[in-house]
Amino acid sequence: MLFQLQVSLAAGHQFDRDVELLLYYQDTHQPTAIVEAAQASSKPGSLMGDPVVMLSLYPEFPKDVMSSMTSHGEFLFVVDRSGSMECPMHLGSGSQDRIGSARDTLLLLLKSLPMGCYFNIIGFGSSYESFFSKSVEYSQKTLDEALQKVKEMRADMGGTEILQPLKHIYSQPCLPNRPPQLFLFTDGEVGNTKEVLDLVKTNAGSHRCFSFGIGEGASTALISGVAQQATGHAQFITGQDRMQPKAMQSLRFALQPAVVDISVKWNVPKGVSVTPLSPPIRVVFQGQRAILYAQLTGESSGDTEGSVTVKYSLAKQPVENQLSFILKPAEDTG
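User: That's the sequence. What structure does it adopt?
Assistant: Structure tokens below.
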């Protein structure tokens, strides 16, 4: 559907100040499906020669569901302590080293955890070590102990071997009704990325993972792959980026209930086909838009509308949205 808007300035305006036009969405969190018409000058069957539909999800979860999840987690912070973490965050003057930035970020995250949760910190390099023998309940006593250990943390553990600490984490029994949330911080890459991602994928049903690539040398395949396989979120900290705001955003995501069993089903009349142009939606967070594009090809003899049905499960409750769209909107002649 094409919308047109005409704005007129009040009589007597002298253009002596900036003109600002503020637009506000109605029903911001409602999912939408919008079709862009094909270009008349393009050949049918080409990218621009057929209409494209955009599916947009920007959910708002019920407050009772959100509040019930805040203290029901186990937070596992997995921190790279290899020698390369001594390198500066960037080449500019006054740059903090990577392990120093990781320490400051951990201090902030630990102070931001909800009361009643459980947590642990695992440092790794050529080997690995845990602050506590097993996850402990978050209290003033355990917080103070962890803060002191974080302040003493150094980049003194050799190479970058992520697989073994992950195997150790996954071998531990999960606490009842406390889904584990992994926070992985690393500045490097590993020679067994596929093995790491396969392990993460195998355990994605129980452990969600939020990954952080520190510096220019962090492996995109590893950082993005871990988050994608474990329905989490990936962040990259390069140049003069500050790690703390990005870590806090991921913590907000981790405090949300996991959205699982996401499915998208297209319903179009006979003669019309749908070709997805985007990867499948694997994760949905409140306050983060998820967008899916698909191309419509073919002709329908009668029906002029199609629909898409999005289903997922939130806190064990099914959610379903069905959206209709026009198969061939009017061309934009403007």
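The chain has a mean pLDDT of 87.
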